[in-house]
Design brief:
The complex is a heterodimer of chains A (181) and B (200). Chain A is mainly alpha-helical. In chain A, 67% of the residues lie in helices and 0% in strands. Chain A contains 6 helices and no strands. In chain A, α2 crosses α6, α3 packs across α4 and α4 packs across α5. Chain B is an alpha/beta fold. In chain B, 34% of the residues lie in helices and 10% in strands. Chain B contains 6 helices and 6 strands; from the N terminus they run ααβαββαβαβαβ. Chain B has a 4-stranded parallel sheet with strand order 3-1-4-5, with helices on both faces. In chain B, β4, α5 and β5 form a beta-alpha-beta unit. Chain B is elongated and about 70 Å long. Classes of the chains: A mainly alpha (181), B alpha/beta (200). At the A-B interface, α3, α4 and α5 of A face α1 and α4 of B.
């Protein structure tokens, strides 16, 4: 092995070791997780899994029957009728994608960002259509699996999920590794 | 934060791509942009329609049905108590269709509303579960047959949703909405013989 090769090899090893050390070390205050007690981190993980499970069930239910979901979207009278199908085709997959991201600690913040955005959007939609406009509509939350009327209960449930999602990515609840994604 | 946003964007793109692919390979893909085919009597003229024409958009409007014209004489004055602008068939016309059996009825109310009472022979396809229940209709009714959809009456929209799905997604050609629906069925004595259910 030449000297140059050995040097390169040595450099690679150092680089890998450094990356590992970066991952394993506690992250700077205010930038990422890893500060909380183990039980808080465990709670954060459980919360993330719970929200992810809800979104997986919701997303798969809509993917299974997109036409019914398109009808539900249309009922809200927010999206132009012509584009209800587009929402029904893409939104459930975004729910599933965000849920999967939430499960993995490395992508949890990105998943939480998407899920938080969707939850805010759902709360606004239900608030506008069901409460402000007074439409008696199915919430369309879980596709055909759980038909329920949109209203205060839906908003409460979404708000609860939002709080849990935020907690799951809070500094104290995030696991040490892979929190910078 | 920047990398979080970037990751979120990547997740969005991948998810959207998955959605597009899934829809493309679906056995019955959804159209990307929904082309509206207005239900036959959504924009019915104010004058009552004779039964031989189901409405301005009806593909089978020229096809006469077997109902004798005398039996379906349109009422001289509108009899509905509300929702005058909705148009659609009147009670007499619906009664004639029931008498002759020349149309199939679809009840768009929820099962809990359908169970206590409904028109005889009506198929229950709740607006909240159209695609779960559509097989009942597809198995029994040819797409060319006249179908009358009703719900609770008044301002209920379920019948509109079901009728629209029947036309746009399942290509039923001759769909009518009985806008006054169950509210009127319960009031008009003529419907009594055609109502069935434990509550009747």
């Amino acid at each position: 092995m030449s000297t140059a090769t050995m040097a390169r090899s040595s450099g690679d090893t150092r680089s890998e070791a450094s990356e590992f050390a970066d991952e394993a070390a506690p992250l700077p205050h205010g930038q990422a997780g890893g500060e909380g007690k183990p039980w808080l981190r465990a709670a954060g993980h459980v919360c993330a899994l719970g929200v992810a499970a809800v979104f997986l069930v919701a997303g798969i239910g809509k993917i299974w029957e997109p036409r019914q979901f398109a009808m539900d979207v249309k009922n809200y009278k927010i999206v132009a009728d012509a584009y209800a199908n587009l929402v029904a085709i893409f939104l459930p997959w975004c729910e599933v994608g965000a849920a999967l991201a939430l499960i993995h600690p490395r992508y949890r913040r990105a998943g939480a960002l998407l899920i938080g955005g969707m939850l805010v959007m759902f709360i606004c939609a239900v608030g506008y259509s069901a409460l402000y406009k007074g439409l008696h509509i199915d919430c369309g939350c879980f596709g055909k699996a759980g038909a329920a009327q949109a209203g205060w209960r839906t908003i409460g449930f979404d708000a609860l999920l939002l709080v849990i999602t935020i907690f799951s990515v809070s500094r104290r609840a995030m696991p040490r590794m892979g929190t910078r994604g | 934060m920047k990398s979080t946003l970037l990751t979120a964007l990547v997740i969005l793109c991948v998810s959207s791509l998955a959605g597009a692919v899934a829809n493309t390979i679906r056995r019955t893909p959804m159209t990307w942009i929904r082309a509206e085919r207005p239900v036959t009597n959504n924009a019915a003229p104010e004058a009552p329609l004779p039964l031989t024409t189901a409405g301005p958009h009806d593909a089978r409007a020229d096809e006469p049905i077997t109902t004798p014209q005398s039996a379906v004489a349109a009422p001289a004055k509108p009899e509905s108590t509300k929702d005058e602008s909705a148009g659609g068939p009147k009670a007499e016309e619906i009664l004639a269709l029931l008498a002759t059996g020349s149309a199939r009825f679809v009840d768009a109310r929820e099962e809990r509303e359908f169970a206590p009472g409904h028109l005889r022979g009506a198929i229950n396809i709740p607006a909240s579960a159209i695609y779960d229940n559509i097989a009942k209709l597809l198995n029994e009714v040819p797409t060319g047959m006249k179908i009358v959809v009703y719900c609770g009456g008044g301002h209920c929209e379920a019948s509109h949703h079901v009728a629209e799905a029947l036309q746009n997604d399942f290509h039923f050609e001759n769909v009518l909405i009985y806008t006054h629906g169950w509210e009127e069925i319960e009031k008009v004595a003529g419907f009594k013989p055609y109502v069935e259910g434990p509550g009747q």
